[in-house]
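Instructor's aside before we start: the two examples that follow are unrelated to each other. I chose them only because their records fit on one page, so don't look for a connection. First example below.
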Amino acid sequence: MADPQGNPIDVRKVIEQSASKTTLQELAKKGIYRVKVLDEAAITRMIGEAVQRIIATKTNLLSETDRAKLVEASRKELDKLVKEFQESKDRAELMEKDKAALAAQIENLQEQLKLQRRYTDEMAKQRYEEGKSVMQQQVDDLKGQLADARNQGGDEARRAQQSVIEEVRGQAARREEDLHRQADARFEEGVKSQQQLIAELQRRISDTEQRIAGEKEAEFSRKLLEEREHEAARREELQGKLAEMNAKNLEMSQKLATTMEDMKKSDEELFKRLTELFTKAIEGVNKKLTDLRLRSIAGGVTSATGSLPGDVEFRPSQMTIEGLIGEELESNLKKMEVEAKTSGKISSALDRLKALRKGPAKPDEKKDEPR
């Protein structure tokens, strides 16, 4: 708590400056054993609560409608972000599926190529074995014919047989060579056919890869263009919202600065008025109590007791003290209001002082009556 100059207000010092001091022994000598004291903490708390009530009523700058709009805008933005994330996730899953399908197709073509090569090798080997078996059968037949000719004839027959044998051997060799050439030709033909099939399969794989790559590239370009357009529109929208929010924030900052400045001036005026009010009230109460004590002392001699004036003691009741404080507060508050009206400066601080004066009443306490 501070005064208008920024220095902290010492409530105890203010009370001490407007009150008289005495000792407990002196009070006991006068027969006063119970006294009421001003509660410094209660006064400080009362001033602090008044300031807190004023601040609470002036800092609620956002209305219910503005808060609802802010919550709705935040919810829409969150829904938009969730939707964009889901679309991005779906695109990634689609690309993974396309990639998996392409890999499966290539693997299938490669498996067909392996099967075709294995079939070609087996067919060539089978044809070679068949030709070799036929030639072996012909050679065996010729050998049998030669053996029969040797058994039937003499030298001429043997020469003829030898000639036939040589001819048969030549034919067998030529036949074997023909079979080898045919087998080689068939093998080469099978290899060539397999190579053509392999080339066709490889071409199909390449075409498939190029087609998928082209489709993906076109789809990616289209999606990228759409995303860029969407991002540009979103950026423009966000820039508009940001500009609007900046304008609102600037306006709210200006209003807040003005409000805080007004509050500061009002609080300084309130502190000043409270200090002045309590100081004057305490001074007035002390003067009245002193006056009452003097009157009591002056009229203290009675014929019944024969007491001296110095023996008479004045002890006001709690109700009397509270009544005096209330009268002084009310009187000083009215004087301050008259002064403010006379000078043409009617401040809201007076209204706030009245509100504090009319606060909730405290419960009755046990009071000491004058003896």
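Example two begins here.
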Amino acid sequence: MSAAREADYDSPAMLVAIIVAARRAGDRELERDARQKLLDRHGVRLNFTHAAGDRQGVPHE
């Protein structure tokens, strides 16, 4: 793999996309690895939250 191509896979945007896809697929190991790369290489921690209206079990009035 070329250095430019390898750099594409290590961009913050690509790592976030991998984390989201792994999370949706239930692949905890891939999610953990991508999160660690994102932190080590870019100093970024990613947290997922729910929008106030999207929480399950909360009555909507």
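Helices lie at 3-9, 12-25, 28-42.
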